[in-house]
Amino acid sequence: MLVQIKSNRSRNAWWRSPLVLRHAVMLFFFIFLLHVAYDHQVKGGGPRGTPSVEAYCPFGGLESLYHFLTTGGFIRRIEPSAMVLLAAVVGMTLLFSRGFCGWVCPFGSLQEWLGLLGRKALRKRYNPTGAWDRGLRYLKYVVLAVVIGLTWWTGALVFRDYDPFLAFFHLGAGIDELPWAYAILGVVLTGSLVIERFFCKYACPLGAVLGILGRLGITRIQRDAANCKGCNLCRVKCHAHVEFLPVTEIRDPECNHCLDCVAHCPKPNVLSVRGPKWRFSHPVYATLLIAGLFGTIWTSKLAGKWQTRPERVSYTNAAGKPDAESIRGWMTLAEIGSGYGIPLERLYREAGIPNRVAPATRLNRIGPEYNIEFEPETVRGIVQAFLAGKPEAPQPHGGGKPPHAGEGEEPEVRGFMTLNEIVLKTGVPREFFVRALQLPAGIDPRKPVREWMHDHGRSIQDLRDAVAAYRKGKR
Ligand code: SF4
Ligand code: SF4
């Protein structure tokens, strides 16, 4: 299995270069994730749809880790597969250092390819070294601490709104859904043209974790000092500007095992990937890396733990009561009608949906497919009113738009949000909610409000009213 590397230069066929193999592996994972993203946009999510890219992001597992350890569940939008992938990536990093970043991560690959494009287009690359570059690299540890801290405090996926990886693979969903994430994506894509692996270097929170764990990894790039001619070409070719000459073993947390240094070293076998006892050829390294990843996934499948999307359609809250907040964009009109017992005619009438819209249409496809102005949020309001026993609202005039206040707008406060998340988003202090709604001291602010508000005789409208009252009082 483990073979001796004979010579970097003697293997003169281009296709035997570590670079070719690595880019082929990167391309495979990149295309796979593009396919996942496209399929999700076309077929939708939910139990009958296809997984979103978030199901394949190990960082989601890390964000959900505290929740998982304390409750056994996952924060909203995270599926068990993210936890399996986190375990796989942590295991891979302990064995193969940061090979995940150098060979697998599709967002890292995208940045690297943009860097190659930038090098061609701009001729001279601006890939800075020096004190401020070194200093800025600590930023990713700050991002990690803030993201994990806020996720723990809110019990919600706070990074989602700013995640450029998600924005890129959220094809066709529209910029309005993640405006900050798209703005950051623009900066990252532009930055990657001039600074190699711009996001990886300065801001990726997963890269920060893997950098720390990678220091414990048992495979390393090693330099044979006796045969090294000291040309320093390895450092010139290294995107991370790792220092080679003072050391014989690379322990830099920025090294992602891309093997560019190995490929460009003019002396055979001077640089190599080594474990405690053996030297690994690049095909063996790649094979072990990929086998580790897929091996963990298949093992979790056999154990019945691999789940990339919700198992069933649910219409109820944690207390088992029908709850309009359980409505998702991937639900069809027919499902909502039968699930909540609301007559379809009423749903169509109140939401201003033309009769030509088939009941089997998913909420988030009604607008694009039938070319009408329609917001899925409208249906949530109608079902909420229906469940509260309110009479049917008057019919809309002019059709297409329902007669609800705030129509077309996403409410700021939603039942799936936690109290801390609402505090963060609205700026209303937690104490104000407790006082205004006379909530008991024991409520968990990291649980979705829909799981406890009904037990205390409160509704989502009460929380929205509290926000409005606070803002009015401040004016
Ligand atoms: S640092 Fe982050 S974005 Fe870059 S390759 Fe690693 S995980 Fe991916
Ligand atoms: S030290 Fe070598 S393997 Fe590590 S990042 Fe630099 S070029 Fe890649």
Report what the structure shows.
This protein folds into 3 domains: 14-215 and 285-302, no CATH class; 313-410, no CATH class; 419-474, no CATH class. The chain is built from 21 helices and 3 strands. Strands 1-2-3 form a 3-stranded antiparallel sheet. The protein is elongated, with a radius of gyration of 26 Å. The longest helix has 26 residues, at 18-43. The chain is mostly helical. 40% of the residues are buried. Strand 2 (271-274) and strand 3 form a beta hairpin. Helix 2 (58-71) packs across helix 3 (80-96). One iron/sulfur cluster (SF4) binds at residues 101, 105, 107-108, 199-200, 204, 206-207.
Write the layout of secondary structure elements.
Blueprint: H1 18-43, H2 58-71, H3 80-96, H4 99-104, H5 106-122, H6 131-136, H7 139-154, H8 164-168, H9 179-194, H10 198-202, H11 205-214, E1 220-223, H12 233-237, H13 260-264, E2 271-274, E3 279-280, H14 282-302, H15 333-340, H16 344-351, H17 363-370, H18 376-387, H19 419-426, H20 430-436, H21 460-474
Bound molecules: iron/sulfur cluster (2 copies).
The site of one iron/sulfur cluster (SF4) has 9 residues, from helix 5, helix 10 and helix 11.
Strand order of the largest sheet: 1-2-3
Work out the number of β strands: 3
Gross geometry: elongated
Rounded to the nearest angstrom, the radius of gyration is 26 Å
Order of helix and strand elements from N to C terminus: HHHHHHHHHHHEHHEEHHHHHHHH
- What's the number of helices? 21
Number of structural domains:
3
Low-confidence stretches are 1-10, 396-408
Mean pLDDT over all positions: 86
User: Approximately what portion of the residues adopt beta-strand conformation?
Assistant: under 5%
The structure class reads mainly alpha
The biggest beta sheet, please?
3 strands, antiparallel
What is the helix content?
A: 40-55%
